[in-house]
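Can't attach files on this board, so I'm pasting raw text. These are the components:
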Amino acid sequence: MVKPSIPKGTRDFAPTEMIRRNYIFDTIKAVFKKHAFLPIETPSMENLSTLMGKYGEEGDRLLFKVLNSGDFKQGVDFENLTSNQLTSKICEKGLRYDLTVPFARYVVQHQAEISFPFKRYQMQPVWRADRPQKGRYREFYQCDVDVIGSTSLLNEAELMQITDEIFTSFGIPVVIKINNRKILSGIAEVVGEADKLTDICTAIDKLDKIGKEKVCEELKERGLSCEAIGKMDPFFCFCGSNEEKLAQLDKVFANSEIGLKGLSEIRQMLAYAAQMDIKAEIELDITLARGLNYYTGAIFEVKAQNVSIGSISGGGRYDDLTGIFGLKNMSGVGISYGAERIYDVLNELNLFPTNIDSPIKALFINFGEKEELYALKGLQALRQAGIASELYPEKAKIGKQMTYANAKAVPFVIMAGADEIAENVYTLKDMNSGEQRKLNIAEIREIIAATL
Amino acid sequence: MVKPSIPKGTRDFAPTEMIRRNYIFDTIKAVFKKHAFLPIETPSMENLSTLMGKYGEEGDRLLFKVLNSGDFKQGVDFENLTSNQLTSKICEKGLRYDLTVPFARYVVQHQAEISFPFKRYQMQPVWRADRPQKGRYREFYQCDVDVIGSTSLLNEAELMQITDEIFTSFGIPVVIKINNRKILSGIAEVVGEADKLTDICTAIDKLDKIGKEKVCEELKERGLSCEAIGKMDPFFCFCGSNEEKLAQLDKVFANSEIGLKGLSEIRQMLAYAAQMDIKAEIELDITLARGLNYYTGAIFEVKAQNVSIGSISGGGRYDDLTGIFGLKNMSGVGISYGAERIYDVLNELNLFPTNIDSPIKALFINFGEKEELYALKGLQALRQAGIASELYPEKAKIGKQMTYANAKAVPFVIMAGADEIAENVYTLKDMNSGEQRKLNIAEIREIIAATL
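---
Top answer:
Structure tokens for the assembled complex are below.
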């Protein structure tokens, strides 16, 4: 018999991990809800026609495809088709690659039922056939929040506020980096390479990882003139406060309408944010591009301070995401939080609340038939007060039952033998202090409830 | 441009449905937690070697298989293989078909880390390539709760108690039907067809649907003697209270050790249940078999009263589920709640709490630049009190904003123009009564908080 295993890049989640993951999801969800976002869910499988061509060639390759049911072979010319060509013949469906494309599909498909602006959140797994490595999985969760159908920059500001509230709840100090695609367009314009915006974005996006020199090399490879690259130089080492950066850019963009538009959007976002009690640092970073070509306005990226983990969240405004499905002029803005990255940061900074690791508050020891029924009464009383508790399901050596309690980090153990039954009490053992007391069940209930 | 769609048998969930579904999941989860069950999750994809052969031939066919990534064609002899044979060559993974087999796989794989008895719950989607029809989907959620590693009948009783608490929370009156595989074995024994237990279970299981006559026909087709079928007759119309049924069976099973064992287990379960304050009716139904061959002891099925929907929950004890993965002697008992069925029952009986349909409690009307900043202050105050609320993100005609409020069933609309700003108040409109009052934000906060 082969030891059972799971597909590479996927994970089982044990209770301790689940509880920590649920803490992350619940915290994020509570903030989304308070901000009046509404939940939707879409199917795990989408038609391949919905997914293909939306994530680039690499993305198409990384989609998990689901084999058609039944006699898929029939009528397919296997001999003369490559694996790639065969795929579309034998697979109609694929697993969701992200939550953005399914959301765009959802909005178009259900446009008649939606009241715009539509503020939705969605927290579901996505699948990518990427090479698994530390921190990168083939199945992982995304937590997305978007407003679609409104061009107001209040939405951008609210997303910064939400981000701030989420990471404040977690106790993770973050920097919210912002930029605007129009500023990047302005830069491309003033260096005289307006038609090379995508190349500039792709290269500049790597500044953090590969450094200025290598970015310049790449720009050269991508066909930018030496003169243009020279002109870009000052943008790489832009420093000072947001106000100082904006003032410098005012001059640079004196003749770039789109650049100036970008600046005015940033200023409006910051003005709104100033009304919003945001604790996180907001930093204008004009080299922030994020690979995604569909961004047309604001761009966000969130970095945790004091850890070496990359961005833990990112997003931006897209003016035409639903256009791919035939619905024009539907501007949206959104941000996505990666549960896995947040988990790692909370772990590294030791920020998970300690009380979540003891979900079960009390264990009744099982001493046998008669004692069991008496324990059941006490158990009932605790559960009615909402205290998660259990009775060891069978008579076993007390050492075994105590080991079980310890393994589950149960803070209180409750025992009742003939003496306790006669006195109508229970012996409560505090597993941290080791202290034991005989108490009636109402007293025990109060003591445990006080620790919740 | 083709109107986008989703694969047949799958569903999008709009906010109103999501909120109702989450109410179901949250209610079930709260009961599981109180009973000290711990959550796990397993990957959506399992190795096909884990899944194949576990659900019968039909099940193998209904598994969704995931195409291998990359050049899957290489080295595969397409010409000479059937679709069926090809599948195992080009697919290594499949989507989870239920939560039971992945749980068994999990227990075996992680046995060294688990403290037994292991009380786990799991709420995740499963996928089946079944023909879609009303109430049957290709992607649906199961909510499973199991105790593994304990043979105590306290576990069976606790599952009945959990079931009772869940459906009491929902306000759904239910009957918990119980039986025991050993009673079925006893019946097979006393009618002289002990080796035809599986045939008897399969046929008898259909009694509800096809009636006694057809069941007898099927028993005959399955090779039971006329004499045996004749002897089975009394079992089809067993009536009276549980005690009466048990007393009758005592006589019938006088010479069937296994039958008597079944009766003693039922008696012990009922004795425990009597200590547990269970409100639901518990009914011994000796024709309850449930198709699944892996049940070895208790069998459960839950039916909602007053609706024509079939069973909404079912389960039982299995003594050797992990045996298929090489771990012997690991008895477990579990029950599964179907979210879709519960949804339909709550809908039909009009039992969804009405307040969940208004998740957003207040909308601030947007009157323009200056008013917006004042509204933001009020919005902040409400959100800090945990009130889900929003500001319409842009200045729009008030009629449009009111339509938006109505579409989202927002109970309170808050307005502030120059007058209100001057007085440092807001006009609160109760959308149910139509009443409007000028109040300061603290007063508004209290009024709304009182409705939560």
